[in-house]
Amino acid sequence: MSVDSPEQLRGLRRAGRVVAETLRVLRSVVAPGVSTGELDRLAAETFARHGARSGPILTYDYPGSVCISVEDEVVHGVPGRRIVREGELVTLDVAAELDGYHADAAVTVPVGSVDQGRRRLMSATRAALAAGIHAAQPGCTLRDVGAAIERASRRHGFSILRELTGHGIGFAMHEEPTVFNWAAPAARARLTPGLVFTIEPMLTAGRPEIVLGRDGWTIRTVDRAPSAHEEHTIMVAEAGPVILTAG
Predict the structure, then answer these.
(1) Pair 89, 121: CB distance under 8 Å
(2) DSSP code at position 141
(3) DSSP H or E segment with residue 54
(4) Among 23, 116, 157, 231, which one has the highest count of C-beta atoms within 10 angstroms of its own C-beta?
(5) 192-210 b/e with 16+ CB inside 10 Å = b?
């Protein structure tokens, strides 16, 4: 969407705060022995406390309030009985709707102590997100955003999973435009003040290829290498990008 009134911006900020709080709650309880189903129940309780609803359920009839992806699961991991273990990476991907406005953010967190390779992967993904947000200046293009993400990823020695992208958001969970995490030639659209979209680099330590799991939802790395995913919903403003899911 493109924000054209203070009321719309307030609505997006409220939805963004719900997403940010839900992420804080979930990451505070990620520990060895916790199940992904328990994390999902906490997310549902947090949504209910604020009168918010799950974006994935509303939009896709998804079988969980949030997406929880472990290790080689890049996105759309379905919460359930799986117990997370020491040394793993867990991605918490939260999208919420509140009073007609949607916001979306994700973070990859360690379960207990993780090895140096996984720490480097998380750090690289955060750096790629920061680079993409910094590039989202008025007058620049979506290709500039993708190029910045790609450069940061390569500089840290990791690969972007090119088939997975960010997206417009606001009145619906997924809107135009598509936000590539690489310098896609087709991404010519200029960034104008008010434009709202997600930036969400997804990196892997292995081959930059993905496969759909047997559950029909979970997307994994083809070689089962660990992955990481960081995301914020932002708005392009005259003075530069504004993060709406920072809390």
Answers:
(1) yes
(2) B
(3) strand 53-54
(4) 231
(5) eebbbbbbbbbbbbeebeb
Q: Kindly write down the DSSP assignment for every residue of 56-104, as one continuous string.
A: HHHHH--SSSSEEEETTEEE-PPPSSPBP-TT-EEEEEEEEEETTEEEE
Q: Cβ distance 198 to 81 under 8 Å?
A: no
Rounded Cα gap, residues 1 and 22, in angstroms: 23
Question: How do beta strands 67-70 and 89-98 pair?
Answer: antiparallel
Interatomic CA distance for residues 181 and 208, integer angstroms: 12
The answer to whether 10 and 242 are in contact (CB under 8 A) is no
**What digits encode the pLDDT tens for the residues 56-108?**
999 999 999 999 999 999 999 999 999 999 999 999 999 999 999 999 999 99
CB neighbours of residue 86 within 10 Å: 12
Q: Measure the CA–CA gap between 9 and 69, rounded to whole angstroms.
A: 30
Six-digit token string for 55: 């974006």
In terms of CATH architecture, what is 6-239? Alpha-Beta Complex (3.90)
How far is the C-alpha of 80 from the C-alpha of 31, rounded, in Å?
A: 16
Degrees to nearest 5, angle at CA 103 with 106 and 213: 45
Domain ranges of the chain: 6-239
Q: Give the model confidence (pLDDT) of 195-233 as tens digits.
A: 999 999 999 999 999 999 999 999 999 999 999 999 999
